[in-house]
Amino acid sequence: MFRTACPSCGAEVLFRSTISAIAVCEYCQSTVLRSADEVKDIGKIGKVLEDYSPIQIGTSGVFAGRAFTVIGRIQLRYDAGLWNEWYVSFDDGKYGWLGDTCGQYMFTLSLGDAANPPAFDDLSPEMRYEHGGRAFVVTDKRTAQCVGGQGELPFVVGNGYVAKVVDCRNADRFLTLDYSDVSESKPHPALYVGEAVELKALQAHTLRSDEEIQRSAGRLKGTANVLDCPSCGNQLQYQAGVATQIVCKACGSEVDCSGDRALVLTKHTEAERYHATLDVGDSATIAEGDKERTGHGVKWTVIGLIEMAEIEDPDSHWTEYLLYSWNRGFFWLVEAKDGWYRVEVLNQLPESWSDGHAVLAGQRYNKLYDSYHAKVIYAAGAFNWRVSVGDRVQLWEYAQGDSRLSREKNTAEVVWSKSSKVSNAQIGQWFGKLDVQTIQSDTVDGELTRSTAWRYTLILLVLNLPLWFAGDWDNVIWTAIAAYLLHWPLNKSAEADE
């Protein structure tokens, strides 16, 4: 360990690793460069936004049988949000990176320069890149800027440092092509390979507690978890540190809270609004694992909602709710015509897929719907990326029983998720609501209409029973025709569903 005084403010700066090139002074944010015989201040870097991440400088764990310690971090901003890259030092003197975005984690190790890579501009989601006998699929392509740094880092960065990165996956394997330093003298991007991980699998220690996250994360200067919309003055409630992009329910303004003050990015005054059963701020208590037997559960809060509609069929729409728990992270609930679904974003890709089917963990999911396009027509609440009215995505859906796989693709990324059916009664129990239905539910509406049809049929039979005994066959025939017409649309609908 090497100790020195910050050339700018005199505070002590630690270099825990012998291969660290710079360290960021935690008091004045000066970037301290260490050379063979001196240290010098090479400028300041922005302070990181403390977010929902439980990781911090000093967090330790084990990856692939090797002990590591987190010694630095850079925070990167792209057009729709932020993510963290944690710099880790292994006990054997080598280093790696632990990517941290939206509650998902990717551990990667440097393998030098990539062999025969395509140009950055030529890559797009779902293209293939071969490495080590594996076909990796491009899942994310971003150009981002470094907006904050902390601790030690292996190379010189500062405000304005541009990162051009392409992420690829093969099942749970992860690969990154980093084009940030590509130049005439260095024509090939850096290559990092690793895998998607969970913190518990890393045996992580010295994590931030829930209380520490809530106390320090993401607060704007001088504000609590409620802030007035800079556009209309309506109160915006959000979870500090969890989400930096807020959409005002009252005026539709997109508000960025990732800096020292809230900024209005854009305003959507003509956003359509459909009825949603749940609202931002609603809480649910959901039992999981052993807690199902004890009657206790995890508290989740709806922090954002998005209304989506098919572009080809605007009458077909659904609502997506983003839920968050301090000690569980994120998940989605979807309210659609055919019911409710709990959705988890997958941290690995299916083994194979086509337009007709997909295979995940050896299970085959067959095509449910042909490829279709959808767009955001309304949004409200807080998100960990920027949501805009008009955002478009292409979707494919596959089903196996009550489970579904969804593949969503836009120009920057492709995301896979898995969903399972949840009953109206279960949603009502979670949220303490007694009248939970689904938006324009064909099933619910069908049941109600069928019940009404039988009710009127019985009334017709009772009223016309005397005609039967009186032998008035003309009116009996007209009664039968009326009963048939009541049920005919429902029978046709049932045949179509089959």
Features:
498 residues, mainly beta, 3 domains, eight-stranded antiparallel β-barrel, eight-stranded antiparallel beta barrel, 5 helices, 31 strands, 15% helix, elongated
- Overall outline: elongated
Helix content: 10-25%
Secondary structure: number of strands: 31
How far from one another are the termini? 70 Å
- Overall radius of gyration: 28 Å
List the helices and strands and how they pair.
Blueprint: E1 2-5, E2 12-15, E3 22-24, E4 30-34, E5 39-44, E6 60-63, E7 66-78, E8 81-90, E9 95-101, E10 104-113, E11 128-131, E12 134-153, E13 162-170, E14 173-178, E15 190-197, H1 210-216, E16 226-228, E17 235-237, E18 245-247, E19 253-256, E20 263-267, E21 283-286, H2 291-294, E22 298-310, E23 317-325, E24 329-336, E25 339-345, E26 352-353, E27 357-360, E28 363-383, E29 392-400, E30 403-409, E31 414-422, H3 424-431, H4 442-470, H5 473-497
Antiparallel strand pairs: 1-2, 3-4, 3-12, 4-5, 6-7, 7-8, 7-12, 8-9, 9-10, 10-15, 11-12, 12-13, 13-14, 14-15, 16-17, 18-19, 18-28, 19-20, 21-22, 22-23, 22-28, 23-24, 24-25, 25-31, 26-27, 27-28, 28-29, 29-30, 30-31
Helix pairs in contact: 4-5
Question: What would you say this structure looks like, in words?
Answer:
15% of the residues lie in helices and 45% in strands. It has 498 residues and is mainly beta. The chain has three domains: 2-202, no CATH class; 218-440, no CATH class; 443-497. The strands form four sheets. It has an eight-stranded antiparallel β-barrel. Strands 22-23-24-25-31-30-29-28 form an eight-stranded antiparallel barrel. A hairpin with a 6-residue loop joins strand 16 and strand 17 (235-237). The radius of gyration is 28 Å and the shape is elongated. The protein starts with a strand and ends with a helix. The model is unreliable at 39-43, 218-224, 290-295, 439-449 and 492-498 (pLDDT under 50). This is DUF4178 domain-containing protein. Residues 56-196, 296-423 form the DUF4178 domain.
